[in-house]
Design goal:
By secondary structure, the protein is an alpha/beta fold. It folds into 2 domains: 80-254, no CATH class; 258-461, Rossmann fold (3-Layer(aba) Sandwich). The chain contains 12 helices and 13 strands. It has helices at 19-42, 49-76, 172-188, 211-221, 256-273, 301-313, 330-338, 371-374, 381-388, 415-418, 427-451, 455-458, and strands at residues 80-81, 114-116, 125-129, 140-144, 154-165, 196-201, 204-206, 239-247, 285-291, 318-324, 342-346, 362-367, 392-398. The strands form 2 sheets. Strands 1, 2, 3, 4, 5, 6, 7 and 8 form an 8-stranded mixed beta sheet that branches. A hairpin with a 2-residue loop joins strand 6 (196-201) and strand 7. The longest helix is centred in the first third of the chain and has 28 residues, at 49-76. The relative contact order is 0.09. Residues 202-363 form the Glycosyltransferase 61 catalytic domain. Keywords: Glycoprotein, Glycosyltransferase, Membrane, Transferase, Transmembrane, Transmembrane helix. The chain crosses the membrane at residues 21-39. It comes from Rubroshorea leprosula. It is a single-pass type II membrane protein.
Amino acid sequence: MTLPSSCVSKHHLRISPSPKLLFFILSTCCFTLLILFEIQSLHTSSPSPSRSFFQQWQNRTLAQDLSSLNEKLRLSVTFLPLKDLRYSKKPLEGHTWFMSSMYDTHQEGEVQYQEFPSEASHGRLLCLKGHETHEGSSNYYALAWPDALPFNATLVKGLTFVAYNHYDYHNIWHSLGAFFPFVAWHKMNGCESPERWVLFQKGELRLKTNPWLNTLMGATFGREPYIEVFDWVKDEEPVCFEKAVVMRHNEGGMSRARRMEAYDLIRCKARVYCNLNLERRIPEIGMTMLMRTGARSFNNETAVIEIFERECRRVDGCRLMVAYANNLTVCDQVKLMSLTDILISPHGAQLTNLFLMDRNSSIMEFYPKGWLKLAGVGQYVYRSMSSWAGMRHQGAWRDPDGEHCPYPDDDGRCMSVYKNGRIGYNETFFTEWTRNVLIQVKARKLEEAASREDQSDSASNTCHCG
């Protein structure tokens, strides 16, 4: 309904604002003034007391958060046994029982390795704990970020090489196998060399290697390996490495070309280290009998030497040398192999020296009775090595006669009888075999002379990396 006009005031109606509205308006004004004040303060040289307090509070809070996060990261570092006993029945299969949670970096044809820190490790460092020499499952490994190392950890500066060997470091063949992939990595990475080596066998720490390997690796890397024994570390205190490279597969995964390049580098560095300046007449043929004493030696050395000496005399320029590796210094061995085109030797560690010959040199190998059936794939290691180093394995002679085994010939127990047996000879076979090898080697040497591509000269150009 419509009110009477007399009831309507001549003035406009005034509506009083509510307290909530007033509070909102005042808050908005205060906030706007605060923003303007802060903007103005940005243009002044010194911060206001309120801003300085705010920054200090903010920085303190951030530092506390980072400290808390850092402590949580340190607490989260988990150490696992270096030797994973779950894989004890197949320790060399897959990624091995050594550091079993880790996978290798591997490009086709190149060496397999792990590097810390790296993209694969998400920037984390390798840490080790324990230095047990008898039980590998009592030694441990973990990964940690550089700013969140485990409590009581020591950070070791420089590059560390960590080698795994399933066998041992005293035998020159097995020890070279463990060190060889580091040579390939060294060559691939601009000749970067380690400050120290950490050696493991089945997860157990090893404190030394053999003098032969020490000398050759010293020549290759510029100084003899410093083997870390951790005698300055308490048992439960971790050691973390600023940079570490781990090898677990020897030369596995490497192409033949890459293996030959690595052997070339060791050979060249060894010759430089031993001050060898060889000037050989190219048609000259060096034939070396590298003999053993005791196990796997020849029963009648005199008769065997006479056979090879007679055949050598039939070829112009052939020179026979007879030597025992255990009577030679490392540089003596390097020099002897540098003068050798045909290496004649029983199966054994001394044959590891074969890569010190020039490429395309020849190897003639000899076995006692029983090895073919019972020795397994290990009996072929020097045939394989010959190929990897760019040599020519000219076959092997296996003695059909030898010590009697009381069990059937294919019984595995017979290997304990045959393993260290001695070797006889077959004059007819040895004569024909040697004659054929000499013919091949002489033809090759004459071809090299004609084309001026003597391998001993070209080897001097392989001492570079990269």
